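hey can u check if this looks right to u? its 155 residues, i copy pasted from the old doc so theres a chance i mangled smth
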Amino acid sequence: MRYARPSDYAYGVATAAAGPSLMLVWERVAPSYVGKGGFAPIMRLAGVIGITAGFLDIYNRSIFRFYGFRENEREREMDMREMVDKVKKSEPLYGHSTLTPYMQGVASRNSRYAGVFLHVLPWFNFVNHEQHGVDTAKYYQQAERELEAERSKAV
């Protein structure tokens, strides 16, 4: 979610507001006559469903950029900056994991293309693992270039 853009949040808020808004419009167009006690639970349910749909919309728009389905230059730059900073601090690129390598692989395989199927089964991966299919040499090379530039400026 930290890679989401303001436009993603705007779409998410619009999606979240659409459900309750449509319920209000439908109640005006074709009243249900259930009274105040019957309409409030329906509005709460529409609100919860709307908020959930809004969150999934934000997540989906963001994840599609990582797959390359949408323009993603900003995300690539943010990823490069984040990973190069980790290399400079001698931190592991993808964090520490308490799971065995086998279980990390299971988590990776189970969630590799989960964002494409998000509309059917929301599946999130909270496991740190090294199996991202990314050539990490580019992060180390960029860190070396930046460190060399910093050394040349210092001299």
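The chain has a mean pLDDT of 88.
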